[in-house]
Amino acid sequence: MVQDAILESGPDLQMETPDASRRDTARAEALPARHQQVAGLLAQLATTGRAFLLYDIRNDTVRRALRNLLDAFATTLAAEPQLRLDMGPFEIFFDGRRVYLDRDRERSLAFRLYRDGVRALVFRQGFDADELARLLEVLSLRYTGIHQHEDDMVTLLWKAGLHHLDVIAVEGLAPESGLVAADSVARASDPRPYLPEDVDAEPVGPTLEVAPERLEPVPSTLAGLRAEVGPGRLPEDALLLLAGIVRALEDPEEGLCLSEALHLCEEIRDFLMSADSLPELLRFVRQLQALSRFDAPWDPERHASAVALLVSCGSDRAVRRLVHSIPVVDPLLRGELVEILDVVCSDPLTAVAEALAVEDRPSGRAVARQLLEHYGRRRGAQLRERFGSAQGRVAADLLRSIAGLDGEETASFVAKQAAHPDPEVREEALWHLERTAHSSALGHALVESVRRTEGEQRRRLLALIERSRDRRFVKPLVVLLHAGVRDLAEARELARVVGRLEGEAGLARWTPALTPVGRFFRRRLPGTPAVQVTAAAAVAEIPGEPATHLLELALSAAAAEARPWIEELLEERATAGARERP
Amino acid sequence: MSTLDLIQDRLEQALRGAGQGDDREIAAHVRDEGHRLAFLLNGLVRATRLYALENDALSGPAAELSAVIGSLVDRLGVVNLALVEDQAYVNDVRLRVRPLEQFALDQLSAEFARHDIGGLSIHHRLDPGRAKLLALELAGPAAAEQPAAALRARLASIGDVEVSGPWRFRIGDEAEQQGPKTHADVLARAEVAVRDTLERVAVGWMPNPLRIRRVVIDLVESLRQRPERAAVAPFAGRVGTSERHLLSVCQLSLLLGRDLGLNEATLSDLGVAALLHDIGYLTSKRPAGHAVAGVWLLMRQRGFSEAKLRRLRAVLEHHDEDLPAPSRGRDTSLFARILHVADQYDRLVAPFHGRLGDSLAPPRALARLWAGRGERFDAVLVALFARALGFYPAGTLLELSDGSWAVVERAGTGREGWQRPVVRIVRATDGTVSPAAGTIDLAQGGALGVMQVVEPGLAGAGIAAACRTALTAVAD
Fold first, then answer.
1. Residues A159 and B268 sit within 8 Å (Cβ to Cβ)
2. SS3 of B281-334
3. Which of residues 279-338 of A touch B (CB under 8 A)?
4. Calpha distance A405→A372 (Å, rounded)
5. What is the DSSP letter of B381?
6. B276: which DSSP letter?
7. What share of chain A is helix, strand, coil (3-state, %, to 5)?
8. Boundaries of every domain in chain A
């Protein structure tokens, strides 16, 4: 309820003038406990109302602020069943004491309320979470939104229908009387009708008369009518308005120009530019297409304006908005989005890639990747080229899209990225390789990647190679081994894979390295400890007694550095063998 | 879902729906351009004191100022520059001024203060020539008497520039505010607001929806307390004025909307649409084109909102159901259909230019709407309307069974009262013409009943006046 203000002026109501310093926050005053509680509540309300400027609504910070605010209201209203807050330009007063002060006109809750004419707010018990949500909606809109002369704080609070909050208001920021009053007086003495004299000559409706009856409309029918002005109908309303505007524009009797309606079309465009309204946005685009084709000799600029409007639907900004609006719960590419982009974007792949580069929301990125995959099917080279100049998360996203394309070229490309200098790209590539069936196209790329990586990523690549069971990997891996590895652990990992791939056929390769040479007690294994460990690791993966015997023989003649490794291999082998025996 | 989840959901939806991103972008643009506007205007004002109007030295600044004004008008529809104490606002966006720049703003404030004005509203683009003239007038001497009015008169020759009084945050006289408003107060303020709107539109300026919304909110509140006030609306207000018709259609629409169960926020949107539904007559070359002309006027308001969208549709479509069959009622919006019923009823019972003999008795007007149910008028809406107004709507002149004449003040309640309204005698059995002190509820089961409806043309001036007096008291 909105009431006219009846200010209670009294000795304790000290209002600051706006001449005071610009930015100030309430200093801690010696307030009684109940005033302090209210002060805390207001500080919380002001902070939360501003939070949406700084953080995404879903952010934990916002959530915490909301929780604290809910608690603060519950506690305060339990103690003060009727909480009246009086507004000053920068202050808020409770029971005669100042409990809020902020002279920053951008931040101040009091200023926002006071400027629009709010002079007091009275919260009553029963003010619950739902009403708080509506109050915050109003406060945050007024913090962030531009007025456009449609509503102010008073009308927004009234429309919010807060049954447990009374708003006492005056006209707010208003011109002094004088000019206005004089005009009113002048007008009152000269009431001119503004409608034409002959307007009554128009036939008004039917002339037939039928006595009315008292009917009771069915509740569901009334609900259906009300639903016509529900928020869910807004996109449809926007299109129907546009259809009406277009009809007017096509009427030669009216002779209207599109330029006069262009801004409205842009507003409708921006409103519909959301993943929630894709079918309506597609219809909007189709309407514009039809409009651009209509021949209007009285409006020579029309075609160009309509085309420009169409193209603006596919601008970088528009595509970014669309991508950003993809809902969390439904990150799937919808056909309407592709249809729209196909009509309005001259280069949808680039537009989407640009949007992806700045999009943080996982759902938006997911759909953007799917779009890139779709457009990449025809323009894979362009996609790979973009990837080449990207970094980090963006590059990883692009790679994910590339990985969705068919063809051996793609598989090989992805495999090569397993050795990419960027860790996010490497991770993305590995993730895909681990979920892709092996093909011969991957061969060289995998080996190259093994050569250029180390540590955990090399291990994952070797696992992929082993999984392939493709013996063609043996030779290049052996070459890699011979070229030298960083340490014995790495040698062992590489050799084990070779051993598993080659099987018994590998015994002949490794036997010379594990056969002692020399005389009597001075018989030793040839080669460096690294060579010995490499050979032992490979043989350890070969089943059968000959391999076991070779290892045991090698152990006795191995270099001191290699011996523990060979011992460990034999133990693992023995353990594995014990597990296999029934 | 927890309470917090629900709150976050709601806020996310609301902010998304408000086009938050766009608002920030527009606000940033307005802030930047508004800053330029204020400083260019101040600069040009000072320059006109140094150079003659024809001097080339003024050409550049005037062109810049013209361009900035054009850019803002294109974006905002109308540009309002308000200087309030030490601050400047352009369309509600406060300009950020660095400390070193404050002096220039203070200079402009001082110029405004000399003329006793607080702001300018610019309704269309100004070419450089008019921009120079504007600066010249601001730089000129202030009139000794009523300087603001004098400046306004001089600016009228430039066109498209409006001045407003000094702005302030009200502090001093607020203790004088009254308590709850009477319906008469509400109607009086609404009439002034509507007339002001019509005058502005007549000279090509944009209406101010906020001011209209404030009076509509008052109307919604007032009708919530006593819905019967709406039914007498066609017979209240000054006969022969457009304001009367617009206020009547507004109140009848609110009555219908309330019976339909629309919430109050939606009712306020409906009311604003109703008050503006005929402004197209002011600029249309032909009456049949007033719907399109009205939309073209209202469309100048920038900024997307649900209210504006529905208002535009309502104004554009409020005669759609009068169209020939193939085009009739094609997806006509609910607001338009409501306005259509209210508009047609009011025009039947109280023609625009108020010639008594031209008006139809309310029951006959209702019967015409009823005959058009389902074809020319939404069937459900007409049924609701008839249920609310009663068989004998307010304003009907009845001859009662005892020979007296009475005017219907309001429908009776429930089924019983629908055809037995509450009336007030305006012509006694002995022929005395005067509104009686009290009302008679014909549903109370007395012997008195309705003989017939008296056509307005047969009433005579005395009885018509007595009816108006009685009905005005209902409105109060």
1. yes
2. HHCCCCHHHHHHHHHHHHCCCCCCCHHHHHHHHHHHHCCHHHCCHHHCCCCCCH
3. 321, 325
4. 10
5. H
6. H
7. 60, 5, 30
8. 2-186, 235-453, 473-580
Distance CA(B365)–CA(B369), nearest Å, equals 6
Please check whether residue B2 touches A, CB under 8 A: no
Tokens of A261: 């309606």
Whole-angstrom distance, CA of residue B24 vs CA of residue A148: 12
DSSP, res B358:
G
Chain A residue with minimum CA distance to B297: A260
Q: Are A321 and A262 in contact (CB under 8 A)?
A: no
Q: Is the pLDDT of residue A184 over 80?
A: no
Q: Is the Cβ of B7 closer than 8 Å to some Cβ of chain A?
A: yes
CB contact under 8 A, A70 and B371: no
- Type and span of the H or E element at B122: strand B119-122
Instruction: Report chain B residues whose CB lies below 8 A from the CB of A226.
Output: 260-262
CA closest to B287 among chain A residues: A199
A406 touches chain B (CB under 8 A): no
Of A7, A158, A173, the CB nearest to B175: A7
Q: How far apart are CA A51 and CA B348, in angstroms?
A: 54
Tens digit of each residue's pLDDT (9 = 90 or more) over B378-395: 999 999 999 999 999 999
How crowded is residue A492: how many other Cβ atoms within 10 Å of its Cβ? 21
- pLDDT confidence of A528, banded at 50, 70, 90? confident
Three-state DSSP state, B453: strand
B-chain CB neighbours of A180 within 8 Å are 164-165
- Which amino acid is located at A138 in the chain? V
Q: What is the DSSP letter of B119?
A: E
In A165-293, which residue ranges form alpha helices assigned H by DSSP? 179-188, 219-227, 234-249, 262-272, 278-293
pTM of the model: 0.83
Q: Search chain B and give the residue with CA nearest A111.
A: B169
Determine the Cα–Cα distance for residues A207 and B370; give it in Å rounded to an integer: 11
Q: How many residues in chain A?
A: 582
What region, left, alpha or beta, does residue B397 occupy, with left being phi > 0 and alpha being psi -120 to 50 degrees? beta
Interface touch B368/A212, C-beta < 8 Å = no
Q: In this structure, what token pair is assigned to residue A113?
A: 């309320």
A199–chain B Cβ distance below 8 A for any pair:
yes
- Is the CB of A210 less than 8 angstroms away from the CB of B74? no
Q: Does the beta carbon of B216 lie under 8 angstroms from any beta carbon of chain A?
A: no
Which residue on chain B is closest to A112 by alpha carbon? B92
The answer to whether A144 contacts chain B (CB < 8 Å) is yes
Task: Give me the residue from B241, B302, B377 closest to A148, CB to CB.
Answer: B302
pLDDT digits (tens, 9 = 90+) for B409-455: 998 888 888 999 999 999 999 888 888 888 899 988 788 899 999 99
Whether the CB-CB separation of A420 and A427 falls below 8 Å is answered with no
Q: Among A176, A192, A358, A363, which would you mutate to test the B interface (most chain B Cβ atoms within 10 Å of its Cβ)?
A: A176
